[in-house]
Amino acid sequence: MPNIFISNHPLIQHKLSLLREKDTQPKEFRALVNELGTLLCYEATRDFPLVTKDIETPLMSMRTNKIRERIALVPILRAGLGMVDGVWNLIPTAVVLHIGLYRDEDTLKPVEYYNKLANYQTVDRCLILDPMLATGGSAIAVADILKEWGATNIKFVGLIGAPEGIQALHKAHPDIDIHLAAIDRQLNENGYILPGLGDAGDRQFGTVDLF
Q1: What residues contact 53, with CB distance under 8 A and at least 6 apart?
Q2: In a domain, 71, yes or no
Q3: Is residue 58 assigned to a domain?
Q4: Residue 10 lies in a domain
Q5: Could you list the pLDDT tens digit for every one of the 211 residues in the chain?
Q6: CA 179, 183, 188: angle at the middle one, nearest 5?
Q7: For the domain that residue 108 is a member of, what is the CATH number?
Q8: Which of 36, 5, 42 is nearest to 20 (CA)?
Q9: How many domains are there within the chain?
Q10: CB atoms < 10 A from the CB of 3, how many?
């Protein structure tokens, strides 16, 4: 699969290790997700097209390069929210589009409960943000929604992926690049990534005692 990109940057791997540790508390967990969002965004935007512009420096005029496209961040609620500020640090002009999905615990299928897209396409490229690419169901559902809305350039940016989820997203949307910090071993019977880091949403917001 040529469009899977795994970052081996030492800072990303170090912060991911801290994120995985079971004793990492919600405040630190949120900070790490934010920082990893920034670092992974840097990797994922490497191929963004540029346009030449005329600007004025304090000393003279010059021609320089700026990002050509209008960018939208699409966090999958709720866990994806933790990555938004980190990406916004690098792309402060990006707009944020919210799509809410939850996973049915019996079927493991995504259920849409919130959709805040404009009535018309206002962006050139969308970055789907979600820390975990587990079964791939949520990412596929969001990509389906965005394409129906009119988006044609989409990337997925996450922290950890399971082989099952990566394969499912690639099969459903082979045109979508997938950027991750790691590919883990497998899913367990409940659809959680192993070794993983637990439930990214619960660990960010402190809603469940994992142990």
Answers
A1: 63, 64, 65, 66
A2: yes
A3: no
A4: yes
A5: 568 999 999 999 999 999 999 999 999 999 999 999 999 999 999 999 999 999 999 999 999 999 888 999 999 988 899 999 999 999 999 999 988 877 777 776 777 787 878 766 778 999 999 999 999 999 999 999 999 888 989 999 999 999 999 999 999 999 999 999 999 999 998 888 999 988 888 888 888 764 4
A6: 130
A7: 3.40.50.2020
A8: 36
A9: 1
A10: 14
